Amino acid sequence: FVSQTTHVMEEAKRKRYDRQLRIWGEHGQARLENCKVCLLHCGPTGVEAIKNLVLGGIHSFTLVDDALVTPRDLGNNFFVHESDLGKGRAASVAKHMHDLNNSVTGSFVDERVDDVVTQNPDFFADFTVVVASQCLGSTLAKLDAVCRAHDVALVALTTHGLVGTVRVSRLEQRVLEAKPEETDFDLRVNQPWPELVAFARNFVGTRFHEMTETQRAHVPWAVTLINAFDEFDSAKETHVSPIHEWTGEDRVSIKKIIKKQFMDASAQTAELGDAALPENCTEALANARHAWKPLHGVLPAALLETLADPKLDNLETPDTPVFWFLLAGLKEFLQNPEGGQIMPVEGSIPDMTSTTEWYVALQTIYRDKSNADAAAVGERARRLLRLNGRSETEISDEDARFFCKHALHAHVIRWRTVDDELKWRNGAGAALASSLRNNDDTVKHCAARYVVHRAVDLFRETRGRYPGTPVDLSMGDSRKRKEYGDTEMTGTEDENPSRDSSRDVSNPPKDVSDPPKGCSTEHVSFGGVCDVPGDTASLRQIVETLLTEINVHGNPANVLDVLTTEAVRCAGGEPHAVAAVIGGIGAQEVIKIVTEQFTPCARTLVYDAAKAVTATVL
Questions:
Q1: Rounded to an integer, what distance in angstroms lies between the CA atom of residue 171 and that of residue 118?
Q2: Which of 1, 319, 353, 492 could form a disulfide with 280 if both were Cys (CB 3.0 to 4.6 A apart)?
Q3: Confidence of residue 528 (pLDDT cuts 50, 70, 90)
């Protein structure tokens, strides 16, 4: 566990990273500066991702790619130049990438990605994150197993035509600074502790009436709400219970009490009505919702699920992160009747119309309560450390305060393995089938895109090329070689099975004379012959097989005709406009993982540039 620390930065660096420091702070930047990233394949998708990370200030990057720069690279990759033609692509990209941020160290490995993954898996042990771009599913499955063994995060990116995918994989990601888009202050106006009650009593009854108009106009609105709730509670025949059902009439009553406090104290306000209410009264009315918040709070489902995680009952493993001990301490704190079985007070308060003296006093009360709750959680966590033979010094008071400040949104993400996804295990098939039947057309469409993406991947596995690309008569596709008169065949498709012998996706239908509607006949591209009808029929058969495996029938979202035909027409294209979006999303996911802030994407994300939509599908 790494708490928020004071990280002294040089002024020049602070200016360079000023905007991002406002988002993830100096402690997040410090984590980013310790991040070592490995990129596999230096096409436009991967390069766009690494570019964003280099600009963000990672520690170092290593590029793995054995390809040479070709004229085609000049059309979609901004990090190779005409002068790089014929040179190693990894070396060329590394050179130009270094120009973006000379504080980032860069290197390259001029080897085949598959060879590095299979022959030198320990190569990946020292990286923080591996970004795999345009990798085959079988390669990703092997790489995922290697990364998990070394606790390295994997971010897989693909771009094919106008469609891209982003897929994160890791054993677990502990999320503390989730930074949700919508948050609300934890003021406990309907559940104040003694010190807060004592402070609020200074602004009620006779004391409030004896104040001047100016003083009354500067009473913090949180105090006004505390006193209004107390009056509302006292007027009830029975005290407001934790399970009290707030009606519209109750809420109106609270607001009437707030207005009455000010009108009874001032003849001028009573005479002029609402128009004469001071600003702090208006603020109290606008924030009256704090009075009817559930007394015991409502814990987010993700936190409840994490508090029930079996790992909390198995803390004796020596390398268990202190996050789990703090979470276990929080669980004990919530179970303690003396603490009211509610979350620790977060400690911050919003701006309010008030005098400096009163505002600071109120702020101090909340901060002291927050520190006391954090100390209670920290003490419980340190006791658990002792019981498991660990040192108490692993959790400082600052660590406990930082944890409790963000604890409401703490949760853990675990991803299914890539191998499970490829073989439809661990709920992957059911999740995709559900997306294909989803009532939301965007989700259904993106799920269909994903099926085609998987089919293209299997096509590449068996043919060694993208559908719609020229047939290489010298290697690989035995059916095409036979079709185009090559009688000296050196191998067959069976020598390179895709996954298992039961799946016959490598053999296209014998009759390819009737391609799907709108599909062109064979054409010549880059000096080679393309069999568009044959590739389309083969890809369609693979799609049908995939749908059958997950028990989906029919033609959801036109996956069997329109989308399949489009995938062949793309011919392995990696347009920069789409690659830039996928690379940007991929870089964001890396930053979430490394800074331990925000919530990473827990499912496979599909982006369709043609419709400008995204959806997570499984």
A1: 20
A2: 353
A3: low
Q: Answer yes or no: are the C-beta atoms of 49 and 159 closer than 8 Å.
A: no
- Count of CB atoms situated within 10 Å of the CB of 125: 12
- Tokens for 62, please give them: 């290593």
How far are the Cα atoms of 11, 60, 597 from residue 15, in angstroms, in the given order? 6, 20, 22
Q: What is the DSSP string of 212-266?
A: -HHHHTTS-HHHHHHHHHHHHHHHSSSPPPTT----HHHHHHHHHHHHHHHHHH-
User: Which of 605, 615, 611 is CA-nearest to residue 159?
Assistant: 605
CA–CA gap between residue 219 and residue 213 (Å, rounded): 11
- Cα dihedral across residues 105, 109, 114, 119: positive or negative: negative
Residues paired with 175 in a beta bridge? 411
Helices (H) and strands (E) counted in the chain, each on its own, are 25, 12
Residue 601: which of 169, 289, 309, 108 has the closest Cα? 169
Burial group, residue 311, by CB count within 10 angstroms (0-12, 13-18, 19+): middle
User: Average of pLDDT values for 149-163?
Assistant: 96
User: How many CB atoms are located within 10 Å of the residue 487 CB?
Assistant: 6
pLDDT in tens, 432-458: 999 999 999 999 999 999 999 999 999
Residue 293: CB atoms within 10 A of its CB come to: 17
Distance CA 406, CA 133 (A): 34
Q: Please give the Cα distance from 257 to 1 (Å, whole number).
A: 46
Residue pair 352/222 in contact by the 8 Å Cβ criterion: yes
CB 88 within 8 A of CB 110: yes
Cα dihedral 66, 71, 76, 79, rounded to 10, equals 60
Report the C-alpha gap between 334 and 110 in whole angstroms. Answer: 55
Query: What type of residue sits at position 3?
Result: S
- Cα separation, 1 vs 407, whole angstroms: 13
**Would the CA dihedral through 583, 585, 591, 594 be positive or negative?**
negative
| CA gap 463, 472 in Å, rounded | 10
CA 126 to chain centre: 23
Query: Is there a contact between 77 and 84 (Cβ–Cβ < 8 Å)?
Result: no
Question: Looking at the DSSP assignment, which residues form a beta bridge with residue 525?
Answer: 528
The closest of 83, 66, 82, 65 to 74, measured between CA atoms, is: 82
Do 189 and 291 contact (CB within 8 A), yes or no? yes
Q: What share of the chain is helix, strand, coil (3-state, %, to 5)?
A: 50, 10, 40
Could you give the CA distance from residue 387 to residue 242 in angstroms, rounded to a whole number?
35
pLDDT digits (tens, 9 = 90+) for 33-83: 999 999 999 999 999 999 999 999 999 999 999 999 999 999 999 999 999
| Residue type at position 126 | D
Indicate the SS3 state at residue 177.
strand
Q: Are 78 and 576 in contact (CB under 8 A)?
A: yes
